[in-house]
Amino acid sequence: MTPRPLLARSLWLAPLGLSLIFVMGVLAWVRANEADEREQQRQTLISDALSTEAQLRDRIAEEQGHLRQLAQGLVGQSPSEAALEHQPAVGAGLRRLWQSVTWLDTRNRVLAEVSGRGEGARLDDGLSLHLTAPVGSDGTLVVRYPPALLLKRGVPWWLARKYDVQLVDSADQVIASSTESPLRAAQGPRPSYRVALTGPLRASPLAEAALTDAALELTLRDPGINAVRPLAWVLVAGFLPLVAAASWLTRRQMRQVQRAEEAWRTEAAWRRAMEDSALVALRARDFDGRLLYVNRTFCDMVGLPAERLVGQLPPMPYWPTDAHEEMTERNRRNLAGHAPREGYEARWQHASGRMLEVMVFESPLVDAGGRQIGWMGSIIDITERKRLEDRERRQVETLAHNARLTMLGEVASTLAHELNQPLTAIASYGAGVTNSLAKLGVQDELVLGALQRLGQQAAHAGRIVARIREFLTRREPRHETCDLHEVITAAVELLKRDCQRRGVSLDVALAPGVPAVLADAVLIEQVVINLARNAADALQPLPAPAGGRRITVSSRVAGEFVRVDVQDNGPGLQGRRIEQLCAPFYSTKAEGMGMGLAICRSIIEAHQGVLDASDVASGGALFSFSLPLNREPHPEAHHV
Ligand code: ADP
């Protein structure tokens, strides 16, 4: 399998990456938003501070106004507490904000003083602020008021709720605060803004410490922004592990899918390779006989592309046109599930018109759920096998026919040979008797006629025998250049199956470079077959000897001859000589005719050769024949 590109392998990281980008985006957005909000808060804070400062200033200016009016009202009066208390503005001022009203002379000596008992007096615990107004030209009125009360009265409630409003001196000391418990320490840095408020504020001209650089400071009580960020962090902290877990799960899932896909691909490739390389044609059909699938071998077999075949219903394009009815009938039988288990033979037609013989095996086609959905057919092309079988059968028939003819010829020859003598004897005796009767002067026409007919009949019988022999042995050996090895190989080929069946191994050991001989290949083949078959016959009834039943056919050049040996490891000849074995009708087999070796000998001798037989020292028999090398055949060739 080729390694997949890095990009494809790390695709599962994409959601995680995207989530990270998203989270970063959200965080950046939160930050930007926060900065915006802070800026806005700052703006509001500044404007609130300025407006507070303005309001305080107004308030002080207002108080200053009240004081100035009071001072003007006192011009010309003698300074006394009673004179002060008599003024309604003093009471109103003390109720409002003032702590005390002091009347000073030009040298700042107290002439009269009135103190309040209101809230201003209660807050008299630290630094006080002052307002002054001249009383004519010979005194000054000084009003003392607590900065805390100024803040309380001068700062609107909604600002006081939103901000800690404080008066701070140059040393950062809080002079007064709108709240009793400032939150500064508890809640870290909070946005605040300072506005100088020195102008309208006066420290007491009586006190040593002067309030020089006082400022108004507004501090936001609850910035509200900080709450967003932790929440964002919590969300991100929760979100990222979740996304990471989801990505990991995705990756696992992807791996599983990948593995399954790889397995599937491998299997598909295997299956395709197997199907395509198979010598067996495959076809799948549903119960209606519709072709669902065909492999390449099937297409090649019938000479049609898969597209033409798949989906096709019977009659099939590969059915021979002359056998539609028979094929339809058989198809019905097969689809009903009655096809023979051991397969059946059929005749199909290739798209080119050529006929082919096939062997078909049907088996149930089962889907993934184990349900049968049709039939799977495996088809083997047996055309060639059939042809070979046919040829072999014909060869064997021809051989048997030839063998029978040869044997009959031999029988006839032997009979003629055997009968010729008695017939000649009969004819001579007849002639002798006729002569004797003539000498004796017997003129009996009847006897003489009978004797004459006797002679004629004997001659006739001789002729009939001769004719039959002639008829049966018309086949003269054809001496042609023939390759002995080819002849032996052909003979062994014919015997091989028979030997296998009998459990006999038939080996061939041919010496190289054996020249061609002039011989009748068919007859020599018969000799080899006969000798090998005799050996197999001798071996078969015995328990197999050590090393198994074995026949070896070998060849070699010996002087002017080629010699062929057929050796077995059977019982051997037990001292019998070739003459005895070759005698016509000599056989030790229950159904033997005893002509085989006789015929072999005639054939070999007709080729100027010699047939011989001997026992093998290690057990078994050795039959051999030799044929002269490229010699002209004898002019009076044997009649076989
Ligand atoms: P048939 O095969 O009809 O018996 P044959 O002439 O071919 O006639 O053989 C004659 C006899 O020779 C056989 O019956 C058998 O006894 C003997 N014979 C032939 N070949 C062998 C052999 N290889 N081993 C032992 N005996 C053999």
Automatic annotation (TrEMBL):
UniProt keyword list: ATP-binding, Kinase, Membrane, Nucleotide-binding, Phosphoprotein, Transferase, Transmembrane, Transmembrane helix, Two-component regulatory system
PANTHER family noted in UniProt: SENSOR HISTIDINE KINASE (PTHR43065), TWO-COMPONENT SENSOR PPRA (PTHR43065:SF42)
Domain of life: Bacteria
Keyword Coiled coil among UniProt keywords: no
Residue ranges occupied by any PAS domain in the UniProt entry: 266-338
Alphabetical list of PROSITE patterns matching this protein: HIS_KIN, PAC, PAS
Enzyme class: transferase
InterPro entries named among the record's database cross-references: HATPase_C_sf, HATPase_dom, His_kinase_dom, HisK_dim/P_dom, HisK_dim/P_sf, PAC, PAS, PAS-assoc_C
Record protein name field: histidine kinase
Keyword ATP-binding tagged: yes
Documented EC number(s): 2.7.13.3
Domain Histidine kinase: 414-631
Xref: SMART domains: HATPase_c, PAC, PAS
Organism: Pelomonas baiyunensis
Domain PAC positions: 342-394
Chemical reaction(s) catalysed: ATP + protein L-histidine = ADP + protein N-phospho-L-histidine
Transmembrane segments: 12-32, 231-249
Stored CDD domains: HisKA, PAS
GO molecular function, one term: kinase activity
